Amino acid sequence: MSLGCVHEFELVKEKNWYIVRSSVIHEDFIDYINEQVSIENNLFFDGVPSINPSFKKGPYSESIPSEKGFNLYSETIFNRHSVQELKEMFSQWKGVALALPADLYYYDLESMDEKTRNSLTEEELKWSTDYYFDKKEIIKSINICLNIVDKLKDPQYILYHKGI
Q1: Which phi and psi (to 5°) does residue 106 adopt?
Q2: Using CA atoms, how far apart are residues 151 and 136, in angstroms rounded to an integer?
Q3: Most buried of the four, 6, 45, 46, 77, by CB within 10 Å?
Q4: Which residues of 132-156 are buried (b: 16+ CB within 10 A; e: fewer)?
Q5: CA distance between the termini of the chain
Q6: Are 90 and 98 in contact (CB under 8 A)?
Q7: pLDDT digits 0-9 by tens, 20-76
Q8: Alpha carbons 68 and 48: distance in angstroms, whole number
Q9: Residues 88-109: tens digit of each pLDDT
Q10: Residue 19: other Cβ atoms inside 10 A
């Protein structure tokens, strides 16, 4: 189980807005990425050429991106001009996921110091263990995203991101 909202990543055939493939990554994992990757190396917020559909109307597949990064709270469009940076970002995320110390990572508990963990009531401990990352599920979602990015080389496709 994971707290919070999700980011949706959809491979869309732009001509008819057909969703070919999609993946979901929880905001909690993206927050974890932000804790693990230094800001100058984190591509999520300002490293990937992007199109903000609030400012530019489609078609998007041949547009030159004028923005950088993902819109956290709304939509973002990526096309073939974003492939290299998207691959780097999702590969970086996969590396962070592979480095998780266990198959289930209880992020609430891991963020506490030992004294705080030891002082939890039984109810608080139960609540804290309800929220975790499933390493295998995260890697599966990231691999789908990497597959989606490979398809972006074909100009008929775009990556449509829906933020939280």
Answers
A1: -85, 90
A2: 23
A3: 77
A4: bbbbebbeebbebbbebbebbeeee
A5: 17
A6: no
A7: 999 999 888 998 998 899 888 888 888 999 999 999 998 999 899 999 999 888 999
A8: 5
A9: 999 999 999 999 988 988 877 7
A10: 11
- Residue position matching structure tokens 């956290």: 72
**Letter string b/e over residues 22-53, b meaning 16 or more CB atoms within 10 A of that residue's CB:** bbebbbbbbebbeebbeeeebbbeebbbbbbe
Q: What own/partner pairs with CB < 8 Å and gap ≥ 24 does 4-8 have?
A: 4/28, 4/31, 4/164, 5/164, 6/164, 7/70, 7/161, 7/162, 7/163, 7/164, 8/160, 8/161, 8/162
The answer to whether 70 and 43 have CB atoms below 8 angstroms apart is: no
pTM for the predicted model, two decimal places: 0.88
